[in-house]
Amino acid sequence: MDESFLNSLDKQDERYVVTVKYPHCLPVLKLCNNAETRKKMWIKAITKATSTNSTILPKIVSLRQQIAVLLGFDSDTSLCLSNKQRMVESTEQLNEFLDRTGDVLKTKTQDEMTSFRKIKGSEDIYPWDTMYLNDKRMKNEFNVDHQLIKTYFPLEHGYLLI
User: Fold this and answer.
1) Which of 35, 65, 99, 136 is the most exposed place for a label (fewest CB within 10 A)?
2) Do 43 and 62 fall into the same domain?
3) Is the pTM of this model over 0.85?
């Protein structure tokens, strides 16, 4: 990690205090050379509300389905699409859109994964690797260095590029 990031952190017993909040999480996932540290951050970030949400989410889904049925719709999706203010107007159109988008994204993802494997020198790419490898890819393939760009948009001017 670069000095400016480390200097922005609080310390406790000579160790840096890093949270799963965006200003800490993103730089660690994107710039930290230590894969184990990225892994720990990624796991903490994606599970931060699991204990609360895992009990609430099924109830929310069930209630939304009940509301949709009471209003004469076969699903919550149909209810949401019924106001005609969406890109699609039916679940069939939505599924067609997702299928088309999925095909395009699959090809793009395969290209990116090939690039990531070359950078990492390994077939094994984990979720906590992707932001880090993408940053390396941007530097290698497109000559884009976000750390250098950040110097042109200092935080005191209201911009934050990490």
Assistant:
1) 99
2) no
3) no
**Is the residue at 128 inside a domain?**
no
* Number of independent structural domains in the chain: 2
For 78, the domain range is 52-86
Beta bridge partners of 15: 12
